[in-house]
Amino acid sequence: MVEASGLKSGMVVMLEGELHCVASAGYHAGGGQHGSAVFARVRILKTGHIRELRLHPGDRIEEVALDHKEMEYLYADGVSFYFMDPDTFEQISLPSEIMGAYEKFLQPNMRIPVALYEGEPVSIAFPPAVELSVASAPPGLHEHATSTFKTATLENGMEVLVPQFIKEGDTVRIEVASGKYLERVRRETRT
């Protein structure tokens, strides 16, 4: 159990029988007739919905420790996403609501940490950035111009703005949360 005043971003807590991940928490020292309070934004792990809570600093909340297991993404059938444990070959499914914006970044055979609660999958711990290859990109306007961007199509069908020097076949790093270009991934060439 943890007091509401001790809530931190990233913690997983049990509220009303459902698992919630704390997105943000802040303490407000009240004044006058209003007592102090903790304001927290939590995301329901099962549905992805955000709730805003106002708690008393002394309220006790059950903190939950999740197990993380790296699993291999197999396929999706429109309703669920299927993952396999590479050690036991056991398959699990996660509802599409949990995947949300991560769906477009999933690649077959990609290994992703899956969060488990009492052996049941509840969410995924997607990496902050992924590497994708450029499927098509128009030629650059100027060879060394880096202040202007052009639209490139990635291997997953997503269009993203990239610098002029990016060409077809390059591998780029994309931020998952925003879908923005971060950098070109340089591959070492061996002779």
Please state the structural category.
mainly beta
CATH architecture label name of the largest domain: Roll
Strand order of the largest sheet: 1-6-2-3-4-5
What is the CATH C-level name of the largest domain?
Mainly Beta
Total number of helical segments? 1
| Count of separate structural domains | 3
- CATH-defined fold name of the largest domain: SH3 type barrels
Q: Can you walk me through this structure?
A:
This protein has one helix and 16 strands. The chain has 191 residues and is mostly beta strands. It folds into three domains: 2-63, SH3 type barrels (Roll); 67-124, Nucleic acid-binding proteins (OB fold (Dihydrolipoamide Acetyltransferase, E2P)), CATH 2.40.50; 129-185, Nucleic acid-binding proteins (OB fold (Dihydrolipoamide Acetyltransferase, E2P)), CATH 2.40.50.140. The strands form three sheets. Strands 1-6-2-3-4-5 form a six-stranded antiparallel beta sheet, with no helix packed on it. Strands 9-8-7-10-11 form a five-stranded antiparallel beta sheet. It has a five-stranded antiparallel beta sheet with strand order 14-13-12-15-16, with no helix packed on it. The N and C termini lie far apart (58 Å).
